[in-house]
Amino acid sequence: MARLNWSPSSLPSLKKRTYIVTGGNTGIGYWTVHHLALHGATVFMTCRTEEKGKAALAALQSSIKQSNPSITPDIRSVTMDLMSLRSVREATTKILSEITQLHGIVNSAGIMATPYAMSEDDYESQFQTNYLSHWLLTYLLLPLLESTAAASNEPGTVRIVNVSSIGHTAAPKEGINFADTALTGSFTFRRYGQSKLANILHAKSLHARYNRATTSSSNKILALSLHPGNVDTQLNTQSWGAALVPVLRCLGVYITPEEGSFNSLWAVASPQVTVGISGEYFVPVGVKKEPSKLARDAQLADKLWNWTEQELRSKGLLQ
């Protein structure tokens, strides 16, 4: 069970701050957007379709106004299909045309243990949705994150948060199968585990690049990965093992999607997060936990970063 000893009500005012949350139309992404906007931030929420974005935006604005009539939330929906790297690049270009500062990214969207499928870019669906597309989004936004950190008079406020999972422990024995990232002959949860391991390794690589001892405190970008808790979302009903969901609900195993957003909110906006804990992995809420041995492998993290950069550059996506 999650240690819900923290609440978004403890967040400070986030006025004049800007955040991006992927998968903001549902589940923990929705509630992450809700609480950031409730505290005054400008929030870009990415959604797979324009229709889903419009519906979520209307629901968020209505619920916030009903509970807090004095607040006019600044939430902006951006269509971004994570199964299309072209869509990710186009959405990022749109976001960059609208803002001059960015204080945080919450890479929250994901799919879990879904049937084998390939994206239009020829990558396995979980590996692309959960990892590759978020890597591309983050990479394209790094210059803006850097300039925001350099201009900030509050070191440590610029952050990248990767929503991983305890499921990262199900990754293959080599961690990332670079010869076959689709894990063609593997069990679907093995593919999920690989993608979630990649999320943690991505955060480790970002931390290594932006938190060196020689990096000035004002230029540091914090990078954290986390497990949101056992959250009762639509992922459970769309994945392998869905038949167990009603039983687990009766046993009280799950927390709500709103509670599932708490760890992300803590990581991206809480003053409790400092430079000293960047690069670490957390379980709810704000509890540092050692991930798997593979997730702590710095050489594997470097290899994954270099492989990913080479892959996406070869497709002309990083030019």
UniProtKB/TrEMBL annotation:
Keywords (A to Z) from UniProt: NADP, Oxidoreductase
Keyword NADP: yes
Gene3D superfamilies cross-referenced by the UniProt entry: NAD(P)-binding Rossmann-like Domain
Pfam families in alphabetical order: adh_short
GO molecular function: oxidoreductase activity
InterPro entries: NAD(P)-bd_dom_sf, SDR_fam
Source species, domain of life: Eukaryota
Entry similarity comment: Belongs to the short-chain dehydrogenases/reductases (SDR) family.
Protein name: NAD(P)-binding protein
Organism encoding this protein: Exophiala viscosa
